[in-house]
Amino acid sequence: MLPYRSRRIEKPKTVRHFRQDDGGSASTSGIIHRIDRSHRKPQQTLPAIESTSNPSAEIGRQITGDLPPESLLKLHGEELIERLQNWAADLDAREATLNSRAALQEHRERQFRVQQQSTLAELAEQARAAKRAEVAIRHRARQMAFEVDES
Fold first, then answer.
1. From start to end residue, where is composition biased (Basic and acidic residues) (predicted)?
2. What DSSP state is assigned to residue 11?
């Protein structure tokens, strides 16, 4: 699939339309305006950059607060550990859900097989009873035929 097709484009959430009536004639009044929901404000705004020789380093210092690289590496490692633990917990929960659904499906399949076997046993018993009844009817028909011939 093409990369630009891999994500589904969702419809806008809340869009309100209203008509503005400015008291003019029917041809000029009733203009429709569209108002979208406001966008989220960013959580953290980047500080203003003064002209320096290395703006990236300046931004990095302003965000990290001049922390040494070892502590930044430690913080990054802790963040990765936390994300991996959250991911593992989510994966465990999904695996547990999958296992419970698989067990439920196997239980349903066993119930279906037991029901099918009992239905087949009942049908076989009914077929045997029908065969016995057929034999009894034929036997009785022969007896009646001989009784009619004798009389």
1. 7-22
2. P
Rounded distance between C-alpha atoms, residue 106 and residue 90, angstroms? 24
Token pair 């020789």: residue? 53
Q: Which residues contact 13 (CB under 8 A, 6 or more apart)?
A: 37
CB 34 within 8 A of CB 17: yes
Give Cβ neighbours of residue 28 (< 8 Å, ≥ 6 apart): 22
- Please list the pLDDT of the chain residue by residue as tens digits (151 residues): 455 555 565 655 555 555 555 554 444 445 555 555 555 555 556 555 555 566 666 666 666 666 777 787 888 889 999 999 999 999 999 999 999 999 999 999 999 999 999 999 999 999 999 999 999 999 999 888 888 766 6
d(CA 35, CA 14): 9
